[in-house]
């Protein structure tokens, strides 16, 4: 019997307000992918369990995991097995700003690479995943773990990953509102004022230094953003009230996770109260939401 290949990929929260398209955080909520080769079959059959059942294509050529497996095989100049079974056990909500697409891309590349000789280095995987996703801020933490700070330079994605301590919690609340990244990017202006650029440079620098220094009392200032949050909050009914509710319940900061619709709060206590307050504020708008109290994953995707 052929050995099963198992990979586990963390959820991610990109941007963290001021770090648009540049920073992201890995979270301890995971998708698992299992691949088994079947020499008797001539296609790779996909099964989806959990989040995204009925929404995610099970056609290997359409599925993002399948496409990413193929991309890795092309890079390795080797063919994928003709037949097999790919089981996707999804816990990351789809299209809600928690990195479900990047988990699919990273998991697909890792499986594809393993099946075609393993020639891709971590650096190659980072760069290929960014090429498929279009920006590095979800794929980099999914690969490296921690708070991943990335730049695109010399045709590569260069990432520094900063470990985040257990003492800081991340409360994610995902409403039943789907905001595709595409839709959320179309909501952005084409240009911004020079002062807004300066504002964001100071905020994101302050944010990253707050994490490094483990100084959370003024974290909220580092999360402030003028590039995307003001435009995207309008796509999330009740979003501003939910962020206020998180702060009132004791959060050190709160913002949109990725391009939404999930909102994320940062806390060193009162986690359950913050989660309940955020869910309650969505409920006041007649919107159901699911919450998680999470920690940072400092490892990134693993082959088990
Ligand atoms: N940086 C991306 C965005 C993350 O905000 O559009 C979402 O994929």
Automatic annotation (TrEMBL):
Catalyses: L-homoserine + ATP = O-phospho-L-homoserine + ADP + H(+)
The EC number(s) attached to this protein equal: 2.7.1.39
One matching Pfam family, short form?
GHMP_kinases_N
Q: Main subcellular localization, coarse class?
A: cytoplasm
Q: Which NCBIfam families match?
A: thrB
| All copies of domain GHMP kinase N-terminal, residue ranges | 73-146
Query: What GO cellular component term, any one, is given?
Result: cytoplasm
Could you tell me the Gene Ontology terms of the biological process aspect for this record? threonine biosynthetic process
Record-annotated residues binding ATP? Answer: 93-103
Q: Give the metabolic or biological pathway.
A: Amino-acid biosynthesis; L-threonine biosynthesis; L-threonine from L-aspartate: step 4/5
The answer on whether this UniProt entry bears the keyword Cell membrane reads: no
Annotated family: Belongs to the GHMP kinase family. Homoserine kinase subfamily.
Q: What is this protein called?
A: Homoserine kinase
Question: Which GO molecular function terms does the record list?
Answer: ATP binding; homoserine kinase activity
The organism is Megasphaera vaginalis
